[in-house]
Amino acid sequence: MRIVGVVGAGQMGNGIAHVVALGGHEVVLSDIAKERAEQALGIIRHNLERQVNRELITQDEMDKAIARISITDNLAHMKDADLVIEAASEKENIKVAIFKELCETLKPEALLATNTSSISITRLASSTDRPEKFIGMHFMNPVPIMKLVEVIRGIATSEETYKIAREFVSDLGKDVAIAEDFPAFIVNRILLPMINEAIYTLYEGVGSVEAIDKAMRLGANHPMGPLQLADFIGLDTCLSIMQVLYEGLADTKYRPCPLLVKYVEAGWIGRKVGRGFYDYSTEEPTPTR
Ligand SMILES: NC(=O)c1ccc[n+]([C@@H]2O[C@H](COP(=O)([O-])OP(=O)(O)OC[C@H]3O[C@@H](n4cnc5c(N)ncnc54)[C@H](O)[C@@H]3O)[C@@H](O)[C@H]2O)c1
User: Fold this and answer.
1) Helices 11-22 and 34-53, interaxial angle, to 10°?
2) Where is the 3-hydroxyacyl-CoA dehydrogenase NAD binding domain positioned along the sequence (predicted)?
3) Which residue ranges make up the annotated binding site for NAD(+)?
4) Could you confirm whether 188 is annotated as catalytic?
5) Which H/E stretch holds residue 177?
6) What is the pTM of this model?
């Protein structure tokens, strides 16, 4: 895995590029919007600096990691990659289009991984010319800090691909949890219905944003309230995951809360745009309800 491509330079893509470059691999980071990739490089630099200041890595390790990352808006620049990790928006049509384009460019032996939070690995794999070389590699947010990576095999994923993926993830210093290819796998199958329920709790007026988050922080000992966490994940991503659960498991208990739908329709999709259940334009985030 000398050269690793990362497609999508949003909050997950920049985190993945960060840990992969620190792990000693060359990284080609791409986004449909070149300025997102440029922005991502700035964020990676800032986050590496924080690690240097905390003496978690040395200045030399930081400099080498930064030097290993190149950015592009052209998937043809992935042609020499040994592995490409897709971390674009959580929309199946976007991901399928990326894989189709990538397959025209990649060398035949290159592996493909997706960071999807919920979409069927088997279905995504079948849109490529190499389902046996395709795997789910679900990093957690923020990637440089969170220990876990869920590894998910599609029905066609070969034993060899699975072994290589596990080794790659372990070499990055992450712990692996193996999940079967069911909608939203393990973490989000459990986490997202809780977040959706928290939004219903707000929608029905059981509590305010502040009360709900405080209740779960102090009452259930969660490090962050569910609405704050939803903003952190991105409400667009939360909604997409609930839709995959709702459609994939055909159970009304996964119905996305109408308030979540409304916030996404309004473009209030969380921290990445400055407004979600909290307004981030003030020094301290202020609840919006
Ligand atoms: N946010 C989380 O907490 C989290 C955690 C684990 C996994 N994920 C998954 O990671 C993926 C990315 O999520 P994110 O939170 O980084 O989203 P994001 O919105 O921060 O970033 C998505 C990026 O994809 C880019 N993009 C869209 N279409 C593209 C295309 N055709 N080609 C290249 N780039 C394209 C966008 O410009 C954007 O920069 C999703 O599949 C999501 O489900 C998210």
Assistant:
1) 50
2) 4-179
3) 8-13, 31, 90, 95, 117, 141, 272
4) yes
5) strand 175-179
6) 0.94
pLDDT digits (tens, 9 = 90+) for 2-16: 999 999 999 999 999
Distance 204 CA to ligand 1 centre (A): 30
The pocket around ligand 1, CB under 6 angstroms, is made up of 7-13, 30-33, 36, 87-90, 94, 98, 115-117, 138-141, 233-234, 237, 272
Rounded distance between C-alpha atoms, residue 149 and residue 218, angstroms: 27
DSSP for 100-119, please give it: HHHHHHS-TT-EEEE--SSS
User: Rounded to the nearest whole angstrom, what is the distance from the C-alpha of residue 43 to the centroid of ligand 1?
Assistant: 15
Distance CA 36, CA 43 (A): 10
Domains of the chain are 3-180 (3.40.50.720), 188-287 (1.10.1040.10)
Residues 6+ apart with CB under 8 A from 70: 26, 27, 28, 29, 77
Cα dihedral: 116, 173, 135, 108 (round 10): 120
